[in-house]
Design a protein that fits this description.
Length: 129
């Protein structure tokens, strides 16, 4: 079975850090780029970050300089390191997999959620004082 298991969310104070993990199984990880999306309460899901097979990284402007993304192609896991967290980072974070060919063709910052093949269940990040 295909699985994307997101984990690492929690309740933190502004300025803190969290590291999310997305563990993949059931498909050929190397053939896929991975994206992180987030959905804040009452808002639409938005793309936050993505990483190609070769490690090329992309971020939405609101997280640039604060978030980093990496992948371990041996462990089939993608990490989202979130630093200097703000109230507005509060959301459920989802990881999703898209074929590398599509990601390379359109660019991870341009692909729409419907173009992703697999989705994880989400992990909640709450930034509160």
């Amino acid at each position: 079975d295909v699985q994307l298991q997101a984990s690492g969310g929690g309740l933190v104070k502004p300025g803190s850090s969290l590291k999310l993990s997305c563990a993949a199984s059931g498909f050929t990880f190397d053939d896929y780029a991975i994206g992180w999306f987030r959905q804040a309460p009452g808002k639409e899901r938005e793309w936050a970050s993505g990483i190609n097979r070769d490690g090329s990284q992309y971020f939405v402007d609101s997280v640039k300089g604060r978030f980093t993304i990496s992948r371990d192609n041996v462990k089939n896991t993608v990490y989202l390191q979130m630093n200097s967290l703000k109230f507005e980072d509060t959301a459920v974070y989802y990881c999703a997999a898209i074929s590398e060919s599509l990601a390379s063709l359109y660019g991870l910052g341009s692909v729409t959620p419907r173009m992703y093949d697999y989705w994880g269940q989400g992990t909640l990040v709450t930034v509160s004082s």
